[in-house]
Amino acid sequence: MVFLNLCDMNEIKPLLARHGFHFSKSLGQNFLIESWVPQDIAAASGAGPGNGVLEIGPGIGPLTAELAKRADKVAAVELDRNLLPILAETLAGFYNVTVIPGDVMKLDLPALIGEQFSGLSPMVCANLPYNITTPVITLLLESGLFSAITVMIQKEVAQRICAAPGSKDYGAFSVLCQYYGKTELLFDVPRECFLPAPKVTSAVVRLTPCPPPKCVHDRELFFQVVRGGFALRRKTLLNALSAAFPLSKEALAAAIAAAGLPADIRGERLGIPEFARLADEIKKDL
Ligand code: SAM
Q1: pLDDT (tens digit, 9 = 90+) per residue, 131-190?
Q2: Nearest to 103, CA basis, from 126, 143, 136, 127
Q3: Strand (E) positions, 136-197?
Q4: How far is CA 192 from each of CA 23, 31, 202, rounded to the nearest angstrom?
Q5: Which atom in ligand 1 lies closest to the alpha carbon of residue 80?
Q6: What is the pLDDT, as a whole number, of residue 169?
Q7: Quick one: which atom of ligand 1 is closest to the CA of 136?
Q8: Sign of CA dihedral 119, 125, 131, 136
Q9: Residue from 29, 64, 66 whose mutation best tests the ligand 1 pocket (most atoms within 8 A of CB)
Q10: Cα separation of 271 and 23, whole Å?
């Protein structure tokens, strides 16, 4: 079996032309054209024997092939039906890959894992379509199904995911990702590594799910406080929370003080323990 080099422009262009393929911007189609990138992403994912890897958006399959060399099984979900005949050709020699046509956001993930990864430890590795980055990462983290999630995304979003309290990139999405586990920004990938080249630099992040922080006692209320705390960015925490909760300013000011926080603090300075303490205090008034 001779495998195509799926990052070589001299092989990609005739392949796409033969199948009459046209890139779709709305599906976030930016394919890798530098072979070190899928190699390094697959290596960073930690995929190996005993793992079943869910890949989102295989494109023409360069990352799929790297994952299939390492893991016991790869299930690759692709929304664009025009890519299916191409994948059938490029992945023909990989007997541990199943391509699943469909939208990752509409999948029954527990069923997929049961069917595809029986006896294996499931993880995710993908070069994500930029238009669904936040919802898909949220879905994967909330599912609690994966031992690691390694994804290439826009660098700006990667920085938000890994940002520390008080930094300019820190926001509600940083708290969400850090609530579910460890976040690591691994390496940048320049625009020139893609066809077509996107407008911005990309970066690879690894999210390693951990048990939820013990300081959070009511998850739903905790995230309500986090969202409220960030909703009005240039306002104090007190003003932001007044807009988000049906409580008097006096009650909220007392909750902020009881949580041990300064009266004029802004939401972006709070880490998970501070948001958790505040949620506990607010709960007493609801
Ligand atoms: N993995 C390939 C690579 O690295 O060259 C392609 C990555 S490209 C950034 C994103 C891929 O996700 C495309 O193949 C696109 O068709 C697919 N895609 C977009 N939206 C999707 C969705 N909702 N579910 C599954 N795949 C999707």
Answers
A1: 999 999 999 999 999 999 999 999 999 999 999 999 999 999 999 999 999 999 999 999
A2: 136
A3: 149-154, 181-189, 194-195
A4: 16, 11, 10
A5: 16
A6: 96
A7: 23
A8: positive
A9: 29
A10: 41
Pocket of ligand 1 (CB under 6 A): 27-32, 56-59, 62-63, 77-80, 83, 103-105, 127, 129, 132
The residues that bridge with 77 in the sheet, in sequence order, are 56, 100
252, 282 in Cβ contact below 8 A?
Answer: yes
- List, in order, residues 6 or more apart from 10 with CB less than 8 Å away: none
Residue with tokens 């995911």: 161
Query: What is the best residue among 9, 83, 127 to mutate for testing ligand 1's pocket, by most ligand atoms within 8 Å of CB?
Result: 127
Q: How many CB atoms lie within 10 A of CB 93?
A: 12
286 residues of the chain, pLDDT tens digit each: 557 789 999 999 999 999 999 999 999 999 999 999 999 999 999 999 999 999 999 999 999 999 999 999 999 999 999 999 999 999 999 999 999 999 999 999 999 999 999 999 999 999 999 999 999 999 999 999 999 999 999 999 999 999 999 999 999 999 999 999 999 999 999 999 999 999 999 999 999 999 999 999 999 999 999 999 998 878 899 999 999 999 999 999 999 999 999 999 999 999 999 999 999 999 998 8
